[in-house]
Amino acid sequence: MEITGYDLYELPPRWLFLKIETDEGIVGWGEPIVEGRAKTVKTAVSEMLDGYLVGEDPLRIEDHWQALYRSGFYRGGPILMSAIAGIDQALWDIKGKYYDAPVYELLGGKSRDKIRVYQWVGGDRPADVVEEANRLVDTGYTALKMDATNQTRHIETAASIERVVDRIRNVREAVDDTVDIGVDFRGRVSKSMAKTLTNRLADLDLMFVEEPVLPENVDHLPAIANQSPVPIATGERLYSRWDFKELFRGGAVDLIQPVVSHAGGISEVAKLATMAEAFDVGVAPNCPLGPIALAASLQVDTYIPNLVVQDHGFDIHSPDLGPAYDYLEDPNVFNFDDGYLDTLDDPGLGITIDEETIESRSQAHVEWQNPTWRNEDGSITDW
After folding, report:
1. Architecture of 107-345 per CATH?
2. Which of 64, 119, 154, 242 sits in a 20 to 30 Å window from 271, CA-based?
3. Which regions of the chain carry the CATH code 3.30.390.10?
4. CA pair distance 174, 65, nearest whole angstrom
5. pLDDT, tens digit, for every residue of 52-101?
6. Phi and psi (nearest 5°) for 181?
7. Sign of the C-alpha dihedral, residues 58, 269, 179, 115?
8. DSSP of 102-134, one letter per residue?
9. pTM beyond 0.85, yes or no
10. What gap in Å lies between CA 30 and CA 19, rounded to an integer?
């Protein structure tokens, strides 16, 4: 079998889909994307396919991964690893369809029969956050995640700290004790504030705190972990096993959160899970993306033994609330029940793309960018 061509589709709300074609008529789909940098990643994917992969056998996935990663003098980073990730997903999709098996069977088979998922709690005001948390629990979620803060100064006032703690405490007290709550700091706070806030949140029995500091400041995680019993999760903005290596050695992280569309695809995330297992670390993949990325992540989740919970970026419990289902021929493939998703058992990634809708929606102008935040004095702060 030989790769004969490909297509890339920029799609609303902020997604990039890749279709790889073969001479046997089997096609594979991937989702190579950096949110807000779709055109940049699109160029990187085209360079890799035109410069190396077109004309090659799609079944030699590991060899292709090594070639795409190691043949460049400059390696890693969000753009190159996301480009590799989407290509890798599409190749696994082709291979699964070729052997008439879901990807998890080719990886080694099932470690579980269903996959626990969590949903993000939206809302700006405390009352809105509590209302949304209750709505999601009523829908069937047993795990939630919420932002800890908005823009934050290097050292915050006592009043600001109290507002953050109260907002999270209100949600914790509003839902049943069987509901897990993760709190995402998104790297928005300094190491000083991270120590203060994780200490103040210690009595709320949180599932984890995510990115208490930026990825470039992970050397401070041991100090944060030593003064707080709350499990620490991070890794959404790390892109390969080499990025994670020092994180594991530091011993402070309890959960890693690789994104299957950023961290080198199915091949690399499966390897990261094996590394994590050796360090007694769980895996809670992030996936604030579209249906192809979620399907790829679920294939890895089904296989790895140390999965804790899976993030997702659209409302799987209510197809009417998001565009993801418009791109699928079967909108019921993500079957949600009592906090869990079923495994995807059809060949390849386990989903069938509605190509007519993809072609139509790709004509839309998509220009998503995250906002630029400033403090009261006009200085830039982290979003």
Report:
1. Alpha-Beta Barrel (3.20)
2. 119
3. 3-103
4. 46
5. 999 999 999 999 999 999 998 999 999 999 999 999 999 999 999 999 99
6. -130, 125
7. positive
8. BHHHHHT--S-SEEEEEEE---SSHHHHHHHHH
9. yes
10. 7
